[in-house]
Specification:
Elements: E1 8-12, H1 19-30, E2 35-40, E3 51-53, E4 59-61, E5 63-65, H2 70-83, E6 91-95, H3 103-114, E7 117-122, H4 135-141, E8 144-147, E9 150-151, E10 158-159, E11 161-166, E12 169-170, E13 186-189
Parallel strand pairs: 1-7, 1-8, 2-5, 2-6, 6-7
Antiparallel strand pairs: 3-4, 9-10, 11-12, 11-13
Helix pairs in contact: 2-3
Length: 199
């Protein structure tokens, strides 16, 4: 993958589509010394908040970010000042963007203005099938959008949806929006097999 200064790349899709695995591969290819990796601190699955982890066990260290998203810009500015390198040499990776507030869009613009290459990844749709967080707005800023798909756990077709399960049954529409989990709580499904009961 080629990057140019200020480029924004979005990797989006349902759970189990390989978003985190893609980010890990990008960081390894670019080099950890010239990459800054962040993720939503709410995601503590697998190795905790301090790493991006794929479902099959690959990982790379990451800085957990809470509600203060300015932490990302400050980290980038400190890196640029410390290494005195052109910002275009730095790759910033941000995972689980759907959990971050609307301020992430402003962060993306500021990183673009600094000339930093940034890759954001996250779920584009929530378990109800509605746009999740600021992913849609980020996609509108992006120079490159990577649409990832999984395999539907029911029929094997390309999956674009994330099915939340409670005791093995589809979660109702009025279930809480955010519930961090893995294969015990979620499946990838195609639109035909995805279900959100109203009651």
């Amino acid at each position: 993958m080629l990057y140019f200064p200020g480029q924004i790349t979005i990797a989006k899709g349902p759970m189990f589509a390989g978003k985190s695995k893609l980010l890990i591969r990008i960081v390894r290819t670019h080099g950890s010394q010239s990459s800054l990796v962040f993720k939503a601190g709410i995601d503590t699955r697998y190795l905790g908040a301090g790493a991006i982890c794929s479902h099959d066990g690959e990982s790379t260290p990451a800085v957990p970010v809470g509600t203060n998203l300015d932490q990302i810009v400050k980290g980038v500015e400190q890196w640029i000042a410390r290494w005195r390198c052109p910002p275009g040499n730095l790759l910033v990776v941000v995972d689980e963007v759907q959990f971050m507030g609307p301020e992430i869009v402003d962060v993306a613009r500021r990183l673009m203005d600094l000339g930093v290459c940034t890759v954001f990844a996250g779920l584009d749709l929530d378990f109800r099938g509605d746009p999740f967080g600021s992913m849609y707005d980020l996609t509108q800023l992006a120079h490159t959008v990577i649409n990832l798909r999984a395999d539907c756990r029911v029929c094997g077709a390309p999956a674009t949806m994330t099915q939340r399960l409670i005791d093995g049954s589809p979660a109702r529409r009025d279930s809480p929006l955010v519930q961090v989990g893995g294969p015990e709580s979620y499946e990838a499904r195609c639109a035909n097999c995805h279900s959100v009961p109203e009651e």
